[in-house]
Design goal:
- The protein has helices spanning 14-26, 36-56, 69-83, 98-108, 125-134, 155-164, 235-253, 256-274, 301-310, 330-334, 339-342, 356-377, and strands at 2-3, 63-66, 90-93, 112-115, 139-141, 169-172, 190-194, 205-208, 279-280, 291-295, 313-314, 345-349.
- By secondary structure, the protein is of the alpha/beta class.
- The protein has a 7-stranded mixed sheet with strand order 2-8-7-6-5-3-4, sandwiched between helices. Strands 9-10-12 form a 3-stranded antiparallel sheet.
- Helix 2 packs parallel to helix 7 (235-253), helix 3 (69-83) packs parallel to helix 4 and helix 9 (301-310) crosses helix 12 (356-377).
- The protein is globular, with a radius of gyration of 21 Å.
- The protein binds pyridoxal-5'-phosphate.
- Pyridoxal-5'-phosphate binds at residues 68-70, 97, 99, 143, 147, 172, 174-175, 194, 205, 320-321.
- The site of pyridoxal-5'-phosphate has 14 residues, from helix 3.
Length: 378
Protein backbone atom coordinates (compact mmCIF):
# COMPACT_ATOMS: atom_id res chain seq x y z
CA UNK A 1 0.00 0.00 0.00
CA UNK A 2 1.38 3.43 -0.87
CA UNK A 3 0.36 6.03 1.67
CA UNK A 4 -0.78 9.43 0.41
CA UNK A 5 -2.62 10.64 3.50
CA UNK A 6 0.12 12.25 5.58
CA UNK A 7 -1.95 15.36 6.27
CA UNK A 8 -4.26 13.09 8.28
CA UNK A 9 -1.39 11.48 10.15
CA UNK A 10 2.14 10.35 9.31
CA UNK A 11 4.08 7.21 10.24
CA UNK A 12 6.34 7.54 13.28
CA UNK A 13 9.91 8.05 12.06
CA UNK A 14 12.89 6.03 13.32
CA UNK A 15 14.42 8.87 15.37
CA UNK A 16 11.11 9.46 17.15
CA UNK A 17 10.57 5.76 17.84
CA UNK A 18 14.08 5.39 19.28
CA UNK A 19 13.70 8.49 21.45
CA UNK A 20 10.36 7.20 22.75
CA UNK A 21 11.81 3.77 23.57
CA UNK A 22 14.86 5.26 25.27
CA UNK A 23 12.71 7.59 27.43
CA UNK A 24 10.19 4.85 28.23
CA UNK A 25 12.91 2.45 29.35
CA UNK A 26 15.26 4.85 31.08
CA UNK A 27 13.14 7.80 32.17
CA UNK A 28 10.14 6.31 33.99
CA UNK A 29 9.54 9.10 36.53
CA UNK A 30 6.88 11.74 37.07
CA UNK A 31 8.34 15.18 36.29
CA UNK A 32 6.67 16.62 39.42
CA UNK A 33 8.20 14.07 41.84
CA UNK A 34 10.80 15.38 44.32
CA UNK A 35 13.39 12.58 43.87
CA UNK A 36 16.16 11.94 41.38
CA UNK A 37 13.98 9.86 39.06
CA UNK A 38 11.43 12.66 38.96
CA UNK A 39 14.27 15.13 38.42
CA UNK A 40 15.40 13.20 35.35
CA UNK A 41 11.90 13.36 33.87
CA UNK A 42 11.72 17.07 34.64
CA UNK A 43 15.13 17.62 33.00
CA UNK A 44 13.96 15.79 29.86
CA UNK A 45 10.90 18.06 29.66
CA UNK A 46 13.10 21.12 30.15
CA UNK A 47 15.42 20.04 27.37
CA UNK A 48 12.48 19.37 25.01
CA UNK A 49 11.00 22.79 25.84
CA UNK A 50 14.34 24.47 25.13
CA UNK A 51 14.66 22.68 21.80
CA UNK A 52 11.17 23.66 20.67
CA UNK A 53 11.71 27.26 21.83
CA UNK A 54 14.93 27.32 19.81
CA UNK A 55 13.16 26.12 16.65
CA UNK A 56 10.25 28.54 17.06
CA UNK A 57 12.34 31.45 18.27
CA UNK A 58 10.54 32.00 21.56
CA UNK A 59 11.18 31.43 25.27
CA UNK A 60 10.94 27.89 26.74
CA UNK A 61 8.49 29.13 29.40
CA UNK A 62 6.05 30.15 26.65
CA UNK A 63 5.42 26.51 25.74
CA UNK A 64 2.75 24.24 27.24
CA UNK A 65 2.58 20.56 26.30
CA UNK A 66 -0.85 19.32 25.27
CA UNK A 67 -2.45 16.13 23.94
CA UNK A 68 -2.41 17.59 20.43
CA UNK A 69 -3.57 20.56 18.44
CA UNK A 70 -7.28 20.04 19.06
CA UNK A 71 -6.67 20.60 22.75
CA UNK A 72 -4.30 23.51 22.16
CA UNK A 73 -6.79 25.25 19.85
CA UNK A 74 -9.62 24.68 22.32
CA UNK A 75 -7.40 26.13 25.06
CA UNK A 76 -6.99 29.34 23.07
CA UNK A 77 -10.73 29.82 22.55
CA UNK A 78 -11.50 28.88 26.14
CA UNK A 79 -8.89 31.32 27.46
CA UNK A 80 -10.22 34.22 25.40
CA UNK A 81 -13.82 33.37 26.27
CA UNK A 82 -12.86 33.65 29.94
CA UNK A 83 -10.84 36.84 29.63
CA UNK A 84 -12.49 39.01 26.96
CA UNK A 85 -15.45 41.22 27.73
CA UNK A 86 -18.92 40.02 26.76
CA UNK A 87 -19.03 42.07 23.57
CA UNK A 88 -15.66 41.16 22.07
CA UNK A 89 -15.52 39.19 18.86
CA UNK A 90 -12.98 36.64 17.66
CA UNK A 91 -12.14 36.45 13.98
CA UNK A 92 -10.87 33.21 12.53
CA UNK A 93 -10.33 32.31 8.90
CA UNK A 94 -13.15 30.54 7.08
CA UNK A 95 -10.82 27.62 6.32
CA UNK A 96 -9.63 26.75 9.85
CA UNK A 97 -9.72 23.17 11.06
CA UNK A 98 -13.07 22.20 12.66
CA UNK A 99 -11.43 22.19 16.11
CA UNK A 100 -10.93 25.97 15.76
CA UNK A 101 -14.32 26.65 14.17
CA UNK A 102 -16.29 24.50 16.59
CA UNK A 103 -14.62 25.84 19.71
CA UNK A 104 -14.90 29.45 18.46
CA UNK A 105 -18.61 28.94 17.84
CA UNK A 106 -19.05 27.14 21.15
CA UNK A 107 -17.49 29.91 23.23
CA UNK A 108 -18.40 32.97 21.16
CA UNK A 109 -21.57 32.08 19.23
CA UNK A 110 -22.39 34.90 16.84
CA UNK A 111 -19.34 36.82 18.07
CA UNK A 112 -17.17 34.33 16.14
CA UNK A 113 -16.61 35.79 12.68
CA UNK A 114 -15.01 34.17 9.66
CA UNK A 115 -12.31 35.85 7.63
CA UNK A 116 -13.04 35.22 3.93
CA UNK A 117 -10.64 33.56 1.50
CA UNK A 118 -10.11 33.99 -2.22
CA UNK A 119 -10.96 31.31 -4.83
CA UNK A 120 -7.28 30.34 -4.59
CA UNK A 121 -7.67 29.54 -0.90
CA UNK A 122 -5.68 32.42 0.60
CA UNK A 123 -7.17 34.57 3.33
CA UNK A 124 -8.24 38.00 2.18
CA UNK A 125 -5.73 40.41 3.74
CA UNK A 126 -7.54 43.43 2.27
CA UNK A 127 -10.68 42.37 4.12
CA UNK A 128 -8.70 42.02 7.34
CA UNK A 129 -7.07 45.43 6.97
CA UNK A 130 -10.33 47.18 6.12
CA UNK A 131 -12.27 45.52 8.97
CA UNK A 132 -9.56 46.20 11.54
CA UNK A 133 -9.67 49.88 10.69
CA UNK A 134 -13.29 49.75 11.83
CA UNK A 135 -13.54 47.17 14.61
CA UNK A 136 -11.05 45.56 17.02
CA UNK A 137 -11.72 41.91 17.75
CA UNK A 138 -10.24 40.31 20.85
CA UNK A 139 -8.33 37.77 18.75
CA UNK A 140 -7.49 36.98 15.13
CA UNK A 141 -6.77 33.35 14.20
CA UNK A 142 -5.25 32.32 10.87
CA UNK A 143 -3.70 28.92 10.24
CA UNK A 144 -0.19 28.73 8.77
CA UNK A 145 -1.11 26.25 6.02
CA UNK A 146 -4.38 24.57 5.17
CA UNK A 147 -4.79 20.85 5.79
CA UNK A 148 -7.09 20.19 2.81
CA UNK A 149 -5.49 22.26 0.06
CA UNK A 150 -1.96 22.77 1.39
CA UNK A 151 -2.33 26.48 0.60
CA UNK A 152 0.16 28.50 2.62
CA UNK A 153 -1.43 31.43 4.40
CA UNK A 154 0.17 34.88 4.71
CA UNK A 155 0.47 34.52 8.49
CA UNK A 156 3.52 36.82 8.71
CA UNK A 157 1.64 39.64 6.95
CA UNK A 158 -1.51 39.02 9.00
CA UNK A 159 0.57 39.07 12.18
CA UNK A 160 2.13 42.41 11.18
CA UNK A 161 -1.33 43.88 10.48
CA UNK A 162 -2.64 42.64 13.84
CA UNK A 163 0.39 44.12 15.63
CA UNK A 164 -0.40 47.47 14.05
CA UNK A 165 -3.85 47.35 15.65
CA UNK A 166 -2.65 45.66 18.85
CA UNK A 167 -4.88 42.64 18.31
CA UNK A 168 -3.52 39.28 19.57
CA UNK A 169 -2.68 36.88 16.75
CA UNK A 170 -3.11 33.11 16.86
CA UNK A 171 -1.93 30.58 14.30
CA UNK A 172 -2.61 26.85 14.02
CA UNK A 173 0.72 25.68 12.56
CA UNK A 174 -0.11 21.95 12.53
CA UNK A 175 0.39 21.44 8.80
CA UNK A 176 3.38 23.78 8.57
CA UNK A 177 5.54 22.35 11.32
CA UNK A 178 7.97 19.67 10.27
CA UNK A 179 7.28 20.39 6.60
CA UNK A 180 8.46 23.99 6.44
CA UNK A 181 11.20 25.61 8.56
CA UNK A 182 9.71 26.71 11.86
CA UNK A 183 11.91 29.77 12.37
CA UNK A 184 9.83 32.84 13.18
CA UNK A 185 6.60 31.01 14.02
CA UNK A 186 7.18 31.84 17.69
CA UNK A 187 6.45 35.49 16.91
CA UNK A 188 2.76 34.60 16.74
CA UNK A 189 1.21 35.38 20.11
CA UNK A 190 -0.52 32.00 20.25
CA UNK A 191 0.68 29.04 18.21
CA UNK A 192 -0.38 25.40 18.15
CA UNK A 193 1.27 22.29 16.74
CA UNK A 194 1.05 18.49 16.84
CA UNK A 195 3.70 15.78 16.46
CA UNK A 196 1.81 13.23 14.41
CA UNK A 197 1.84 15.21 11.17
CA UNK A 198 5.61 15.11 10.79
CA UNK A 199 6.76 11.75 12.10
CA UNK A 200 6.27 12.15 15.83
CA UNK A 201 3.80 10.12 17.90
CA UNK A 202 0.05 10.74 18.02
CA UNK A 203 -1.47 12.36 21.11
CA UNK A 204 1.08 15.09 21.74
CA UNK A 205 1.33 18.73 20.77
CA UNK A 206 1.83 22.13 22.27
CA UNK A 207 0.50 25.63 22.73
CA UNK A 208 2.84 28.61 22.64
CA UNK A 209 1.57 31.71 24.45
CA UNK A 210 2.91 35.28 24.78
CA UNK A 211 5.89 35.65 27.07
CA UNK A 212 5.08 35.91 30.79
CA UNK A 213 1.37 35.41 30.14
CA UNK A 214 -1.00 33.03 31.86
CA UNK A 215 -3.65 30.86 30.22
CA UNK A 216 -6.96 30.02 31.84
CA UNK A 217 -6.60 26.23 32.07
CA UNK A 218 -9.06 24.00 30.30
CA UNK A 219 -7.96 20.97 32.30
CA UNK A 220 -7.92 21.41 36.05
CA UNK A 221 -6.47 19.39 38.91
CA UNK A 222 -2.73 19.94 39.11
CA UNK A 223 -0.02 22.57 38.94
CA UNK A 224 1.82 21.08 35.96
CA UNK A 225 2.85 23.24 33.03
CA UNK A 226 2.96 26.42 35.14
CA UNK A 227 -0.68 25.90 36.06
CA UNK A 228 -1.75 26.11 32.44
CA UNK A 229 -2.63 22.43 32.01
CA UNK A 230 -3.12 19.86 34.73
CA UNK A 231 -2.07 16.22 34.35
CA UNK A 232 1.16 14.23 34.46
CA UNK A 233 3.24 15.03 31.40
CA UNK A 234 3.93 12.12 29.06
CA UNK A 235 7.71 12.49 28.89
CA UNK A 236 8.42 9.80 26.23
CA UNK A 237 6.02 11.21 23.64
CA UNK A 238 7.18 14.78 24.25
CA UNK A 239 10.83 13.77 23.85
CA UNK A 240 9.87 11.75 20.79
CA UNK A 241 8.06 14.74 19.22
CA UNK A 242 11.20 16.85 19.56
CA UNK A 243 13.39 14.08 18.12
CA UNK A 244 11.12 14.07 15.06
CA UNK A 245 11.09 17.84 14.72
CA UNK A 246 14.85 18.01 15.08
CA UNK A 247 15.30 15.42 12.32
CA UNK A 248 12.85 17.25 10.03
CA UNK A 249 14.54 20.62 10.61
CA UNK A 250 17.86 18.99 9.63
CA UNK A 251 16.31 17.64 6.44
CA UNK A 252 15.00 21.11 5.63
CA UNK A 253 18.39 22.67 6.34
CA UNK A 254 19.66 20.32 3.60
CA UNK A 255 16.79 21.61 1.37
CA UNK A 256 15.35 18.10 1.04
CA UNK A 257 11.84 19.51 0.91
CA UNK A 258 12.63 21.51 -2.23
CA UNK A 259 13.27 18.37 -4.31
CA UNK A 260 10.06 16.83 -2.96
CA UNK A 261 8.20 19.91 -4.16
CA UNK A 262 9.55 19.26 -7.66
CA UNK A 263 8.22 15.68 -7.54
CA UNK A 264 4.83 17.02 -6.50
CA UNK A 265 4.84 19.47 -9.42
CA UNK A 266 5.78 16.71 -11.87
CA UNK A 267 2.88 14.66 -10.56
CA UNK A 268 0.48 17.57 -11.09
CA UNK A 269 1.71 17.96 -14.66
CA UNK A 270 1.13 14.25 -15.30
CA UNK A 271 -2.29 14.44 -13.73
CA UNK A 272 -3.40 17.36 -15.90
CA UNK A 273 -2.01 15.62 -18.99
CA UNK A 274 -3.40 12.12 -18.32
CA UNK A 275 -6.75 13.23 -16.92
CA UNK A 276 -7.86 16.25 -18.92
CA UNK A 277 -10.43 18.35 -17.10
CA UNK A 278 -8.75 17.90 -13.70
CA UNK A 279 -8.40 21.12 -11.72
CA UNK A 280 -5.69 21.61 -9.08
CA UNK A 281 -7.32 23.41 -6.15
CA UNK A 282 -5.32 26.48 -5.12
CA UNK A 283 -3.02 26.05 -8.15
CA UNK A 284 -2.15 29.76 -8.22
CA UNK A 285 -1.17 29.95 -4.56
CA UNK A 286 2.00 28.91 -2.77
CA UNK A 287 1.33 25.46 -1.34
CA UNK A 288 2.99 22.92 0.92
CA UNK A 289 5.37 20.68 -1.03
CA UNK A 290 3.44 17.55 -0.06
CA UNK A 291 -0.20 18.37 -0.81
CA UNK A 292 -2.32 18.12 -3.94
CA UNK A 293 -6.01 18.81 -3.79
CA UNK A 294 -7.52 17.84 -7.12
CA UNK A 295 -10.99 18.33 -8.54
CA UNK A 296 -11.38 15.17 -10.60
CA UNK A 297 -12.95 15.40 -14.07
CA UNK A 298 -15.83 13.08 -13.16
CA UNK A 299 -17.11 10.54 -10.64
CA UNK A 300 -17.72 10.94 -6.92
CA UNK A 301 -15.04 10.95 -4.24
CA UNK A 302 -16.00 7.67 -2.61
CA UNK A 303 -15.85 5.77 -5.88
CA UNK A 304 -12.36 7.08 -6.60
CA UNK A 305 -11.25 6.40 -3.07
CA UNK A 306 -12.50 2.81 -3.07
CA UNK A 307 -10.94 2.01 -6.43
CA UNK A 308 -7.62 3.60 -5.48
CA UNK A 309 -7.66 1.73 -2.18
CA UNK A 310 -8.10 -1.55 -4.09
CA UNK A 311 -5.25 -0.54 -6.38
CA UNK A 312 -2.99 -0.04 -3.33
CA UNK A 313 -3.14 3.73 -2.76
CA UNK A 314 -4.39 5.34 0.45
CA UNK A 315 -5.71 8.79 -0.45
CA UNK A 316 -8.25 11.05 1.13
CA UNK A 317 -11.30 13.14 0.38
CA UNK A 318 -9.92 16.06 2.36
CA UNK A 319 -9.79 16.47 6.08
CA UNK A 320 -9.85 13.11 7.89
CA UNK A 321 -12.18 14.68 10.43
CA UNK A 322 -14.87 15.29 7.81
CA UNK A 323 -14.60 12.02 5.89
CA UNK A 324 -17.97 10.31 5.76
CA UNK A 325 -19.88 13.53 6.34
CA UNK A 326 -22.56 14.41 3.84
CA UNK A 327 -21.82 18.14 3.64
CA UNK A 328 -19.10 19.27 1.27
CA UNK A 329 -15.87 20.57 2.76
CA UNK A 330 -16.26 23.98 4.42
CA UNK A 331 -12.82 24.86 3.01
CA UNK A 332 -13.91 24.30 -0.59
CA UNK A 333 -17.22 26.08 0.10
CA UNK A 334 -15.28 29.09 1.44
CA UNK A 335 -13.22 29.02 -1.77
CA UNK A 336 -16.47 29.24 -3.69
CA UNK A 337 -16.47 25.75 -5.14
CA UNK A 338 -19.94 24.37 -5.84
CA UNK A 339 -21.14 21.47 -3.74
CA UNK A 340 -21.08 19.05 -6.73
CA UNK A 341 -17.48 20.07 -7.42
CA UNK A 342 -16.45 19.65 -3.80
CA UNK A 343 -17.73 16.06 -3.93
CA UNK A 344 -15.26 15.35 -6.74
CA UNK A 345 -12.18 16.57 -4.84
CA UNK A 346 -9.46 14.18 -3.71
CA UNK A 347 -6.47 15.00 -1.51
CA UNK A 348 -3.08 13.40 -2.04
CA UNK A 349 -0.62 14.19 0.73
CA UNK A 350 2.86 12.72 0.62
CA UNK A 351 5.39 12.39 3.41
CA UNK A 352 9.14 12.62 3.77
CA UNK A 353 9.51 8.94 2.89
CA UNK A 354 7.38 9.17 -0.29
CA UNK A 355 9.52 8.72 -3.42
CA UNK A 356 9.30 10.16 -6.91
CA UNK A 357 8.38 6.63 -8.08
CA UNK A 358 5.42 6.64 -5.64
CA UNK A 359 4.09 9.85 -7.19
CA UNK A 360 4.52 8.36 -10.70
CA UNK A 361 2.72 5.19 -9.64
CA UNK A 362 -0.14 7.29 -8.26
CA UNK A 363 -0.46 9.23 -11.52
CA UNK A 364 -0.64 5.93 -13.46
CA UNK A 365 -3.17 4.46 -11.05
CA UNK A 366 -5.34 7.57 -11.36
CA UNK A 367 -5.30 7.30 -15.15
CA UNK A 368 -6.40 3.65 -14.87
CA UNK A 369 -9.15 4.37 -12.35
CA UNK A 370 -10.32 7.27 -14.48
CA UNK A 371 -10.79 4.94 -17.44
CA UNK A 372 -12.89 2.63 -15.21
CA UNK A 373 -14.95 5.50 -13.75
CA UNK A 374 -15.55 6.86 -17.24
CA UNK A 375 -16.42 3.40 -18.60
CA UNK A 376 -18.91 2.74 -15.78
CA UNK A 377 -20.61 6.06 -16.53
CA UNK A 378 -20.79 5.49 -20.31
N1 LIG B 1 -5.39 21.72 12.96
C1 LIG B 1 -5.11 21.26 11.72
C2 LIG B 1 -4.80 22.23 10.63
C3 LIG B 1 -5.10 19.89 11.47
O1 LIG B 1 -4.83 19.45 10.23
C4 LIG B 1 -5.40 19.00 12.53
C5 LIG B 1 -5.44 17.54 12.30
O2 LIG B 1 -6.00 17.06 11.35
C6 LIG B 1 -5.67 19.52 13.80
C7 LIG B 1 -5.66 20.89 13.97
C8 LIG B 1 -5.96 18.64 14.97
O3 LIG B 1 -4.77 18.14 15.48
P1 LIG B 1 -4.71 16.90 16.50
O4 LIG B 1 -4.98 15.69 15.67
O5 LIG B 1 -3.32 16.93 17.04
O6 LIG B 1 -5.71 17.12 17.55
Amino acid sequence: MIYFDHNATAPVMREAREAWLEATEHNPGNASSPHQIGGRASAALKEAREKLAHFLDCQPADITWTSGATEANNMVMHHFARTLDAKSEVWVSAIEHPCVHESAKHYFGKRAKFIPVTHDGVIDLDWLTAELADTRPGLVGIMAANNETGVIQPWREALAICRQYQVPFFSDAVQWLGKMPSKGLGECDYLSGAAHKFGGPRGVGFLKVPHRSQVTPLILGGKQEQGRRAGTENVPIIVSMLAALEAREKQMARSEHILRGVWRENFERQLLHKLPGTVIVGANSPRLWNTVSALMPEGVQLRWLTKLDKAGFAVSTGSACTTGKEEPSHVLAAMNFKSVEAHRVLRFSSGWETTEADWDALANALAKVHAEVHHAKA
